[in-house]
Amino acid sequence: MVSFRPVAALTPPPHLASEVAAPPYDVVNRDEARALLAGKPNRVLRVTRVDALLPDDADPHAPAAYARAKEELEGLKARGALVETPARFYIYAQEMQTPEGPHRQVGVMGSASAEDYWADRIKKHEFTLPQKEEDRLRLTEALRAHMGPVFLTYRAQPALDALVARAATGAPWVEFVAEDGVRHALWPVTDAAVEGALVEGFAGLGALYIADGHHRAAAAARVGRGAAAGDPRGRFLAVAFPHDQLCVMPYNRVVRHLNGHTPAGLLAALQARFAVTPLAAARAPAARHEWAMCLGGAWYSLRPTPALAAELAGRDVKAQLAVSVLQDEVLEPLLGVRDPRTAPHIEFVGGIRGLAALERGAGARGVAFALAPTSTEEVMAIADRGEVMPPKSTWFEPKLRSGLVVSYF
């Protein structure tokens, strides 16, 4: 049984919510965090990206940095920017415009269980980086708080989704449009019957899946490992969305050299495994196994030859991913990218940045590839097998805002 329950939390007063809330710590760099903090003394980036408040030469992983983050959190509480609220669920809706049109996703914010994480009832699809995980662990322990939610998904259940929709009626408690154009809305669940039905509905799920936030989840689970029943250390902040509402964008690739090939030579080499067709203009791939390539300022469509298509049909789900096929058939054998985690000449470009970013990245000497997005079904299938995705396989949008709800222990 999955344990997903109401969360005792700190929340901003509604009139301060748009100022307090901020993007996740790991999607902005130090300079971007400083810009977002300008004129916003109550933004939670003061805590989650405390390095933006420190001198450039300060060590962001030193004990003094974590102590400063704790001081900043206490300052938010003292100024009334974050106030204690009773344990409850929150319905969290996000709306954004995508190239395909408007997108809306509605999930439940509550507390997930560290025990479920270790028992693999919360399933993972990525490795974590030890240094990044350790940073989140040390910050969480210093704060005794989880500043941003882990992004979870579950296989959509009509009864549970209907319950969530019912709880998100009427005027939201908090609603605002962030700097990136994403609309955020929050409804606290105050009806005891609805709360109980949500607990029961989540308990009936076979599993929850981490969509985004593997480092936050790993750190939180380490904090809560072995916690006794009822100990708040054993629970962490999360939002769970049905899988069929998620917007997964591609994680595209730029390789900054041609590994000794000329553009004509690379095109000829690709034709051994792909049908290569010139495109009149840049466009995203139209099929799971199509790749759009920018080379020498021109765009091409790559589709598997019949022989490669037959091979792909016999491969497992991980080897059939668009990112896997590109790595196995193009990046490693033709462009010398043996390990995309460490290769210095590859860049990963989130789909939200568009095709123009790929053209700029490829320039005159490199090559860029636009991929079809990995589906949530593929993510869950790989997690169910106890496997991990290739690096940089998914880019979920919109990002969850930190600071709307902060859990503590």
Describe this structure in words.
- The chain is α+β, with helices and mostly antiparallel strands.
- It has two domains: 7-15 and 85-247 and 396-408, Alpha-Beta Complex (Conserved hypothetical protein from pyrococcus furiosus pfu- 392566-001, ParB domain), CATH 3.90.1530.10; 251-372, 2-Layer Sandwich (Conserved hypothetical protein from pyrococcus furiosus pfu- 392566-001, domain 2), CATH 3.30.1760.
- It has 15 helices and 20 strands.
- The chain has an eight-stranded mixed beta sheet, sandwiched between helices. Strands 14-16-15-18-13-17 form a six-stranded antiparallel beta sheet, sandwiched between helices.
- β3 and β4 (101-113) form a beta hairpin.
- α4 crosses α6 (130-143), α6 packs across α9 (214-224) and α7 packs antiparallel against α8 (192-203).
- It starts with 6 loop residues before the first strand and ends with a strand.
How many structurally independent domains?
2
Relative helix content: 25-40%
Looking at the structure, what is the overall shape? globular
User: Spatial order of the strands in the main sheet?
Assistant: 5-10-7-11-4-3-9-8
Whole-number radius of gyration?
22 Å
The level-1 CATH class of the largest domain: Alpha Beta
Report strand %.
25-35%
**Gross CATH architecture of the largest domain:** Alpha-Beta Complex
What fold name stands as the CATH topology of the largest domain? Conserved hypothetical protein from pyrococcus furiosus pfu- 392566-001, ParB domain
Task: Tally the beta strands.
Answer: 20
Report the biggest beta sheet as strand number plus sense, adding barrel if it closes: 8 strands, mixed
CATH superfamily of the largest domain: Conserved hypothetical protein from pyrococcus furiosus pfu- 392566-001, ParB domain
Structural category is: alpha+beta
- Ranges where pLDDT stays below 50 over 5 or more residues in a row are none
Give the number of helices. Answer: 15
Instruction: Give the mean pLDDT.
Output: 96
* Spatial separation of the terminal alpha carbons: 23 Å
